[in-house]
Automatic annotation (TrEMBL):
Keywords: ATP-binding, Nodulation, Nucleotide-binding, Transport. GO terms for molecular function: ATP binding. The keyword Acyltransferase does not apply. The keyword Nucleotide-binding applies. Belongs to the ABC transporter superfamily. This is ABC transporter ATP-binding protein. Gene3D superfamilies: P-loop containing nucleotide triphosphate hydrolases. It comes from Paraglaciecola algarum. Pfam families: ABC_tran (PF00005).
Length: 307
């Protein structure tokens, strides 16, 4: 369990983290979302013990950094932003170095290294200098060092930044497949990532916590949640759709040719829209219920404090 109370961090008078309060329980995969400079990395650095808070309290598994800094650090695996590593070492040398620091020796050390190398699929680059590796492999080396001691808590700062779509998918699968009783905190700029891997979302802007709930609750804040969007194969008169019972309003995107129908509160309009489209033989080539648009919700939530 991580318990954060009234956490603040200032840099020469500038408040980067402003009175954060939250608890995180085992099994939670938390996505930290926020614009550039929101305070995500600074918060992560304080939870890992890398930076001291200006004020406030952090407890990790009922331990505090003042009295049990080392014990806490043993429980945490941390991938800092940019996955820093010693570039002239090979992954084998780097992971051996980290494993020793984490207290592993002999056969146990070798077994831990083998396990993480397989987990993040580093086999083919183990003897190449890290500085010569692609971004994706560098990031995987960073993940491997964070996982080497099988920590209870994993803190990953932008783990998929700069990866290609296949590599992003692999890292997300890896995070999803981690033991279900771990705490995982990831920071990301990719809104879809939170729905892909997280079961809790925190949105931070200007150091303040603005949203803390499930990805589904975030989707529900979108004005598009539950709306029905159609596309016609050629231009057609959609005005009667706006008159259907249960439809509150209609939005037409002239660029894409898409028509979106917004339901009245509490109404489900899919069956009405499909029935009308069939009856009037509208040339519909796609029709779907919107899950909510995260970019719109993110803008709405963060604009209030950034304006
Ligand atoms: N060591 C430092 N000294 C001075 N200011 C700092 C320091 N570290 C962070 N800041 C400032 O604190 C604010 C929060 O930075 P932080 O890196 O935590 O944001 P972030 O949400 O992780 O941003 P990004 O998404 O761009 O990585 C920024 O304005 C940043 O410039």
């Amino acid at each position: 369990m991580i318990s954060v109370k009234n956490l603040c961090k200032s840099f020469e008078g500038y408040t980067a983290v402003d009175n954060l309060c939250f608890d995180i329980k085992p099994g939670e995969v938390v996505g930290f979302l926020g614009p550039n400079g929101a305070g995500k990395s600074t918060t992560m650095k304080m939870i890992t013990g890398f930076l001291p808070p200006s004020s406030g309290d952090i407890q990790v598994c009922d331990l505090s950094f003042e009295s049990a800094s080392l014990k806490i650090k043993q429980k945490i695996g941390y991938l800092p932003e940019g996955a820093p590593a010693y570039g002239d070492m090979t992954p084998l040398q780097f992971l051996t170095f980290i494993a020793r620091i984490r207290g592993f020796k002999g056969a146990e050390k070798d077994a831990r290294i083998d396990q993480v190398v397989q987990q993040v699929e580093l086999q083919e680059v183990m003897d190449k200098p890290i500085e010569n590796l692609s971004k994706g492999f560098k990031r995987r080396v960073g993940l491997a060092q964070a996982l080497i001691h099988d920590p209870e808590i994993l803190i990953l700062d932008e783990p998929t930044d700069g990866l290609d779509p296949n590599q992003k998918h692999q890292v997300r699968e890896l995070i999803k497949n981690l033991a279900k009783d771990k705490i995982v905190i990831i920071s990301t700029h990719i809104l879809e990532e939170v729905t892909a891997v997280c079961n809790r979302v925190m949105i931070i802007a200007k150091g303040k916590l603005l949203f803390d709930d499930t990805p589904n609750a975030l989707h529900k804040l979108s004005k598009y949640y539950g709306a029905v969007t159609l596309h016609f194969s050629y231009r057609a008169d959609a005005s009667e759709l706006a008159e259907l019972e249960g439809v509150d309003s209609m939005e037409e995107d002239l660029k894409t040719g898409r028509v979106t129908l917004f339901p009245k509160p509490g109404e489900h309009i899919l069956h009405l829209v499909t029935a009308h489209a069939q009856r009037c033989k509208l040339p519909v080539d796609s029709l779907f219920v919107e899950q909510g648009r995260l970019d719109e919700v993110f803008r709405k939530i963060t604009q209030e404090v950034t304006e």
